[in-house]
Amino acid sequence: MYLAKIRLNLFTKIFGFSLFIVLITILINYSFNAIFLEKFYIYRKKELMLKVIQNAKIVYETQSENNFENYVYDIKESKGIDIDIKNSKKSRMMGSHMMRRSDSIDNIPYNKFVDKELLGNDAKILYYGEELSRDSGIFVSTSLSVIQAHSHESNIFNIMTALVALAISLGTGLIFSKRITKDIGCLNEKARKISKLDFSENIEINRNDEIGDLSKNLEKMSKELSTSVSNLKSFVSNASHELRTPIAVICTHATALLEHKEIKEDEKRKYYEIILKVGNEMKELIENLLILSKLDSTVFRLRNESVNLKKIIEEALERYDIIELERDININLNLDTENVLGDSRIIKLVLNNLIQNALKYSIIGGDVKIFQKFNYLVIENTFQGKLGNEIEKLLQPFSRGKNAEDFKFDGMGLGLSIVSKALNLASIKYEIKVDQNRFIVKLKILDN
């Protein structure tokens, strides 16, 4: 029922549009015929008559009477133009077939086009004459009744053409509406399934037009939505899992403090410290989740401003200096460029996460290098354990490397995911690689 309605609407539009085009074409053609056709026909005839009279004068003056009469006959047959000579000797010079309009040219002036109606006939004759000598002249004439008959026949032909065009439009509209609605039905069914989060079927419409492009875009959207929904489910599941553990710890310790009044003060303090530590971890997790949400939002607007890169790095090192001191990290900062163009929020977010990771995952007594190499800012640190080919995995939310799990490093696995999303949002090229026991991140921000 739905497809039948679409087909009927589409057919009505196609046929209506075709009818409109046919009617406009007929109207324009009729208007041009009524206004310009006769004028154009007379204009062309006048040009032809001028050429004929010039040639006739040459033949008349340079060739025999017989040749002239043959020329007159040929012009009459081929061009529909009569040639007459007006002088005192015309009866001797012209054959009787050439004298049928002699009375009509008596009052025709030279070098001027004149049209006359024949008595007892609606036909018009167009005359033109030029002087040959003092007492003679040559005249050409042609009937204009042809254009009148032609105009009538042209109108009939236009009506017949319009009827044929309408019949073709009717058949074409039926064929195209049926074909188009079939593909539209497929797209509609696919869209209905997508609205119910069913991405199981692929769209197979092979067309090189707008509907083909629409099907490809709908298929692309379906795959992207399927991936996004899967990632969202995984994200919610991981977030729930990560929040469940600290909540359980807080509830357990809070319950113990409430139910066991005899707990000693030093043990209570230990419980409080655990609750505070877990609470801070939850706070950090929620803040990171909010950051990820903002980076995924379409309303996030980038700014292009001057950013003091060296100051941001120094502030990040100062912020995490407790990690530096605890792990006895040697920091080497070497920058030639201090200011860059970019979004200070993005750059600060990225550098804070990268520097925190570099300090946290470095071996005790290791080193962290931050330096400029051509247009790249490079952050490099030594690390413990093995990573292998885990770089792509590390960019996913809640994903941590094997060394982080083996050595029980604190963290939720969101740092590099935030970095990746922020850099992609700002269109900043980056490279992350592992070289033996060194973790290296390169950011192309020094030429922005």
From TrEMBL:
PROSITE patterns: HAMP, HIS_KIN
EC number: 2.7.13.3
Record-linked Gene3D superfamilies: 1.10.287.130, 6.10.340.10, Histidine kinase-like ATPase, C-terminal domain
Enzyme class: transferase
Membrane protein topology class: Multi-pass membrane protein
Residue ranges constituting the Histidine kinase domain according to the UniProt record: 238-437
Name the record gives this protein: histidine kinase
Catalyzed chemical reaction(s): ATP + protein L-histidine = ADP + protein N-phospho-L-histidine
Subcellular location field: Cell membrane
Transmembrane segments: 14-37, 156-176
Keyword Transferase included in the entry's annotation: yes
Cellular component GO terms held in the UniProt record: plasma membrane
Domain of life: Bacteria
Domain HAMP: 178-230
Presence of the UniProt keyword Transmembrane in the record: yes
Alphabetical keyword list: ATP-binding, Cell membrane, Kinase, Membrane, Nucleotide-binding, Phosphoprotein, Transferase, Transmembrane, Transmembrane helix, Two-component regulatory system
GO molecular function, one term: ATP binding
